[in-house]
């Protein structure tokens, strides 16, 4: 059985869980530098704010760097063991991480969990990841052996 890693993404950090048959263990988090979430301020009542483009550019760049750091960590873990991968978090972040994954790791992507990140425990991660893995293995096509003709 492959090692399963569950990644819970947030804007500035990613929590990684090593999901085993009996328990889930939280690995060290990936923290990325992120500036405060303050928005741009408008000059006039109906006009777009000054610095709006810079604000959105900053947010995109922080997200890109965060996704790159999480991808690097997953690739390093994959070199140690063959991984199966489960993601949880906002849909835009999980999609961005899927796009950044190498093909070999993306091929072992099981699915996405929808969890309350504030009430998350390793036990909840283990239960939901195992449920998702069971559904995933049932959906795999059956491989029939090739018969040789006499």
Give the structural class: alpha/beta
SSE string? EEEEEEHEHHEH
Task: Report the count of strand segments.
Answer: 8
Name the CATH homologous superfamily.
Answer: eRF1 domain 2
What distance lies between the first and last C-alpha atoms, to the nearest angstrom?
36 Å
CATH topology: Nucleotidyltransferase, domain 5
Count of discrete alpha- or pi-helical segments spanning 4 or more residues: 4
Biggest pleated-sheet summary:
6 strands, mixed
Contiguous runs where pLDDT drops below 50 for at least 5 residues: none
Task: Please state the overall shape, judged from the principal axes of the Cα atoms.
Answer: globular
Write the layout of secondary structure elements.
Layout: E1 3-9, E2 13-19, E3 24-26, E4 30-31, E5 41-42, E6 49-50, H1 52-80, E7 83-88, H2 91-100, H3 103-106, E8 109-113, H4 122-139
Parallel strand pairs: 1-7, 7-8
Antiparallel strand pairs: 1-2, 2-3, 2-4, 5-6
Helix pairs in contact: 1-2
Q: Could you characterize what this model shows?
A:
The protein has 150 residues and is α/β, with parallel strands linked by helices. The chain has a single domain, classed as eRF1 domain 2 (Nucleotidyltransferase, domain 5, 2-Layer Sandwich). It has helices at 52-80, 91-100, 103-106, 122-139; strands spanning 3-9, 13-19, 24-26, 30-31, 41-42, 49-50, 83-88, 109-113. Strands 1, 2, 3, 4, 7 and 8 form a six-stranded mixed sheet that branches. It has a two-stranded antiparallel sheet with strand order 5-6. Helix 1 (52-80) packs across helix 2 (91-100).
